[in-house]
Task: structure prediction
Amino acid sequence: MTKTTTNHYMPSRRAVLAGLAASPIALAAGRAFAQPTSGTLSIAVLDWAETGIKPVFAAYEAARPGVKIDYSLLPGDYQGIRQTLLSRRLANKLPDITYLADILATQLANAEVTADMRPFLTSGGPIGMTSLAKPFLDQYLVTSGPNKDGIFGLPIGADTVVLYYNKKHFDDAGIPYPTDDWTFEKQIEVATQLTQKNGNTTTRYGLAASVPWHATYVPGIEAFGDTLLDENNMYKLQSEAAIKVFTMYWDQVKAGVIASTPQQTQLGGGFQAFGAGTVSMLQSVRALTPLIRSVTTDDWDAALVPTINGVRKTGMGSIAQSITTTGMANNQELAFDYLNWFYSEDGGMKILTASYGTVPPVEALYNSPIWTDLPGPPYDNRVFAESIQYGAMNPTSIPADVQAVVDTELTKAEEAVVLNNMPVADALKAAETVINEAMTRVLASGG
Result:
């Protein structure tokens, strides 16, 4: 295994996705195709994923003597990923396989960086069109333009938002642990009981939830029966549903019960705050589990997020890998073999799940012991697989440049509401105006 170093920026996001001892996927991988005996496969990896993926590459090389993986690094932020891959495309130096973020799927497809993965998924191998979790595969389904209906990425993990909770805090307060029938109102009631203050200063928050994050507000809006975008692909933050969702969260931020992003940052980050016991519950993703395990001394577990308006919806997201146009043209056989091995129970999935950070995106592995039998905490691994059916994804039609504006403007809106007591509707109206101006500009430029 060799490594090619590339210039990259500091990542702005850390994604930051019955027992099957004889999985049909694992068995099929050995008999469906002849294993390659030689060749080099080049793969571009997000910089923050390097440590976790290196053992996967080494295991593949061990399983395929004579085959080498030459990996390079990509920046971990949207803009860096896009710029680097577009530059490599222009220089005819694309790798065979590249990592990408869900929000870049359409743009990279239209720029002829990534190839349609349907030829792989219909090649007759163990990984086919119905193997991967549809909610996550759909994040890489292009819905308009010249590549409409193509699939331009395969999810690496199935990451949904769950509710982490500190069992000691619940025990000390004599409060039963979260259950599947919790409502948002019940969650806030308990969070209020668990919150501790010194005068007007919160010393322990009942709940940590990043409000200006699509994995928080998109599920809420959908739970109220609406959508984030209108029929013209414009944001509608003035909808009754949007105002309700942001109000119900920001009211609790103002009350000092919910630690939103600024408060979590002051506490060293959400997982650090949870680990230190300065928040009792944390809404976040499976990918944080290794970090939570490393810093938390109290016993803890995970539960499904509560229902809103009688509906259970949860945030979701993923990173993916895709064969590039170069890889599909010049190294298809080896790329196909690697991906079939990667998604097998005794291949890449076994290695990645052992770190606690990944839920296999392969439906046949939802109950596999490779990750469900890992010693706790968390103990209730069921919730990580079960929550997938409730996933609400950020619309794939949102360009990456616009998402950056969305994140900035909603953070400004939160500050205006929480710190300056601006009415929620007014703050969202101001954000909507700037966001839709950006959407109009980017769409008009063909971005």
